[in-house]
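Example record

The entry below shows one chain as it appears in the dataset: sequence first, then structure tokens.
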Amino acid sequence: MQTLRCIYRVVTGPGPSRLGFTSRNITGATPPSTPWFIDTEGPGQAITRHTPPHLAPKTHELPENISVGIKQLFLQLSKSPLLEPSTLSVERPVAALPGPPLPRTLPKGRRKRGRTYSGEGLAEEPGGIWDWVVTAQVKEGTENRGSIEAVVRQVRKTLLSMDPPLPLPPNSKRRMVNGWAMIDAGKFAVHILSRDARRKYFERSTAAW
């Protein structure tokens, strides 16, 4: 015990110690109230950083003459975390090019089979099956993890919850084929695509067909 007291007096005694430094009494020192990394000379100015133009999400402007159901569906799909916001669009369907006319010849034989004449009927109206086409692409790498099926369920739930609900075909267990799922909503169709399916079927020119 006496040895410890002697060492304490040598180290903490007044004047220079034998260890080569001057002893201080730090028991009464109070730490500063402001940390060293805070500037106290003036008020801090907040730095606002804007998103670069090439990273900002692109939004598609809706046409003016679409139905209320398409607007509600577009609003719900724009909030989905499974979709790429820049790929969500509502457009008119691409008109198919007319093919060559079939030769109108009467069927021959006792059973009246063959040939191309099917009798008189109603004239075909120009235009496609749907008035509008809604396309949306899931995020890359999620098409095989159930993202397309999840978006299809969201689309069906949104359309069936409208007043009045839109008529939809029966739900099918096999909803997605080759990264592509389609919902027929009567006046419009909804296509949920992967990136590869979009490039293969929806970004090809008419000359490639």
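Notes for this example: DSSP finds four helices and four strands in the chain. The two ends are 100 Å apart (CA to CA).
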